Amino acid sequence: MLGDGELFFSVTDGKGVIREGNSVFARVSGYGLGEMVGEPHSLVRHRGMPGGVFRIVWERLGRGRAVGVYVRNSTKQGGEYWVFATICPVGEKYLSVRVVPRTRLREVAERVYAQASRAEEVVRRGGGSRRDAAEAGAKVIEEELLGYGYASYEAFMVEAAAAEVAARGAGSVRAHARPDARGAIGEVLGGTEELQGVLGELVGRLAVYQRVCGELTGASEEVLEVARRLERAVAAAQEASEVAVDVPVLANVARVMAKPIGEAVLALERLGPELSRLRGDVARLRFWIALARVHAEMSAAFAAEVHDGLSPGASLGSVPLLCDAAAAGALEMAGHVRRVNEGLHGVAQLAAAAEGMMEDFRRWLGQWRNLVLRHRAAPAIGAQLAVIDGELAASWDWMRTLRWEGYEAAVVPFDASLMTAPLERIARVL
């Protein structure tokens, strides 16, 4: 069966017909490579897999987008095994590298797939076509994932890819190291090691950033709720100033101090969606990093097998396609890094704007409080004043969390040439 550190590899054409495969794929599936090449990839598909899964996969691939998916396959002898498959369009071909699932997300996929299969069976019994059944299954998959906290299949996919690749750990990469390798093999192994170093550093930065982003999201939700309550309390104080007290200046200041708290609420309302978009960009960036890592590791695995005499030298012929996929991924990563940094800047601006409005409000509140004391209006307004003071204290505690000092330090540095340079060196020797 498939070992924890092993990788499946296959290439199909635009119709899903297998054109290449590696020794691991052949061994685990029970088919020789000669038997598989020229056959549709559905040769190894388990009959329990819902068609809706593949509808989602092919719809995404049809738009030129990479995809990640949990798949249950069958062996030639009737056994079964699960993989997490990454699939990328590269020119007119589709490149797939698959790993052993290690996280709880596979269990989520199993439960969701079971619901989709039941929905598809209902459609088929009602006389619906396979296409109709697959559409129904795809819809159920999306709906079921909502119950697990995923807004879409893409949200589930990007988390699963990053989690499964991270779960492999550094040991799986080190397993392919061959310090004595020379020539083309040495170049491939050296280049992939350099790639893994660049990607590992980026992953480390994003892990910290993702944690902080979560903390900021919680803080923004709390301070927004407090600010809304404060806005209501200020509106009540404004009404009391105008109705219960015959002091025009008090009512005027009350109206003025309502403006900054209203603007603070607007800024905080925008902050939530900005943070949500930012988390999405970080997740998609982690997805592309995960793909680049498995492509680099797969290249190293080919080179290590040739070095050890377990595969013919011709196996290195698959490495250029992996390099092409990694190079395309580097461009995707550069775009996502740019969006992450722009999003981070936007979040910092909104948090600063909200804090500035809250500071303005505190200054006007101080003036209003002095007027209340000067005109002996506390008996009429004292209740509203106590509420405002309580809400303001609560909001300031949460604003301290949003006043994070590390916005600029968290900007993700990324130079695509750090990836493309080793890829180009590998390409030159193959």
TrEMBL record:
This is Aerotaxis receptor. Keywords: Receptor. It comes from the Bacteria. It comes from Actinocorallia herbida.
